[in-house]
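Forwarding the complex inputs:
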Amino acid sequence: MARRSVDEHAARIAALVAPALAGLGTELLPLAAARGRVLAEEVTSAVPLPPFRNSQMDGWAARAAEVADAPLLLPVAGVQAAGAATPRTLPPGAVLKVMTGAPLPDGADCVVPVEDAEAEGDSVRILRGRAPGEFVREAGSDLPAGAVLGPAGALLTPRRLAALAAGGVAEVPVRRRARVAVLTTGEEIVAPGRPLAFGQVYDANETALVALLQEAGADPLPPIRTPDDPAAFAAALDVAVRVADLVITSGGISHGDFEVVRQVLEPRGAEVVEIAMQPGGPQALASVGGTPVVGFPGNPVSTQVSFVVLLRPLLRAAAGLPPIDASIVPLGVALASPAGRRQWLRGRIETGRATPVGGPSSHLVATMADADVLLDVPADVERLEAGDPIAVLPL
Amino acid sequence: MARRSVDEHAARIAALVAPALAGLGTELLPLAAARGRVLAEEVTSAVPLPPFRNSQMDGWAARAAEVADAPLLLPVAGVQAAGAATPRTLPPGAVLKVMTGAPLPDGADCVVPVEDAEAEGDSVRILRGRAPGEFVREAGSDLPAGAVLGPAGALLTPRRLAALAAGGVAEVPVRRRARVAVLTTGEEIVAPGRPLAFGQVYDANETALVALLQEAGADPLPPIRTPDDPAAFAAALDVAVRVADLVITSGGISHGDFEVVRQVLEPRGAEVVEIAMQPGGPQALASVGGTPVVGFPGNPVSTQVSFVVLLRPLLRAAAGLPPIDASIVPLGVALASPAGRRQWLRGRIETGRATPVGGPSSHLVATMADADVLLDVPADVERLEAGDPIAVLPL
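Prediction (whole assembly, two chains):
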């Protein structure tokens, strides 16, 4: 059987999924709920930052020309506190006590810091003069009114959120997250925590896909697990395609007699194909009711590798998150790999070298937990030596 | 005034905060709520993985010795489906159809993949023999029963969660997150979204501290904002120290007349000190009712830098998250820095060189949003040239 290349299958998934995720639109979130999200549109500041000319220090607001001959004694005309609704006016030949962040009194053009002065009764001895503008923060010196607090596409880090808050923005327009339905299938799969009969295995794919989706900036819907019952799976699928932007299935697309996903999806126009990839050879792709359905094989390593290689880039792009790129590092050990399959080995980077963790088999779900990267062995490569360059994709 | 060094103040904070966060204890979470958390204790698998000997392929379960002379025709004795409660027994001189993941029939020792055989009525023509063990997954070949699914301290990545699910674990013991109270103060600060009168500024520190705490693996309690009213602040503080593992305040610790945090904390034994750091010079530290209270200055850049430099390492360590380490890169431009202060400039890494973003002033909260790192200019350095090595701390 001719196997489709990974790149070709990835392109076919992209052709179906990327347009479906392109129109996710915008939602408005309070700042406190927006960390890690991405601005859907540019947000500008209604106010300049700082909003008004203010003092950078606790000290004495003065006229630079009047304190140039310091040391000298000047009368204190009062106090300018922070939060004052109107600035006071500095009388000629005097100073006003001023707090950090308080409006600069009208007429003042510098601040003498508290450590450069000594109070003497109702006066203050200015020990050192200051130039015009010293310790004064001009209105708009951080950001003019109307300027951009966050461009479209900005990731909402703590410091970006702080800037938005400083600009008075309480709610931000962020890209809506893709709603993704997860359907895991298999007569043998059982929810973790339930008793396990002979012949049954615990469902790792639901847990893996939900967590992978969250990491990729998507919003997993409550997952659904079905046995190899086409009616049950079809019912779950028909709900999923109505409520989700994307449906992911695991299992049921191989060559056995009870391939529930294949049985239900093929009459709905799915292509169920073998791709030249290990793990993750069997793959399915459909559009059901206008919603893309991506079918991954049921082995838990196959499911995770398929997601990382085929869907994660699309979901991160839709969410506005930066791509996770492969890098090239030297291989720590020699490797053999089957001809005609692009193999994704689980591995770690140790002292700068990529080293496989466990074997290539797709059932090694416990072993995969210790991996940090996938080692990408091209389809036409059957042997690599220690020190050879290899592409590694962070998990 | 002698200024305390950053390292000394960090050590004093650590001496107070680290013990308070050392006894956070454990909470039990369902897998679906545990992503990004850290295992509080080792978790082992009650079952071997895989739980039973099973087929790696859709194909024909056989005895290797009986298919060694392939091609040959063998009768099909039935089907072994996945999810079967008992394995079938393979009669001598026959094969059983077997699905991926199905128990290997008793007596079988290899699987002939579906692509290496052709069905002929009630028989199948085996085109290629297989050695004992081929396409058979032995019980426990991924993980023996009782072995470790996740060590204490393991970060719960999607793949670690998948391994735990595969082992049947439905709930995991994770480190409880530190509950941290955030109290922002200032007569002039207003919640984003509210109208801004002259002399007022929007509170960026609440938003920043909540988001920074979440990123550092802590659990921020609903934040409280108070004006410069000692009674209001004292009331908020007294609640906070009862419900939180740690209290962070911003503002009110400088030399002005309305320093609410200083006024309330000093009678409770706080030290309010100047440290040789810019931004972030004024700092306060107290233990109130046995709860550490860390007081940061109110300028929004000072608050964020203080958190990143002084508290983030302690919170990440308490959460079991890996440290965020500084690295050394060449400086992109020449820099001047005040003597006697360790200066943390906001910057970016561009083409491998650290370049400041905006000026050093602590009110530049909008500008800080564009920074990725802090440039760490030592206290005794007044001038650096382009190309000089500088330590940068990721934000």
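The mean pLDDT of chain B is 95.
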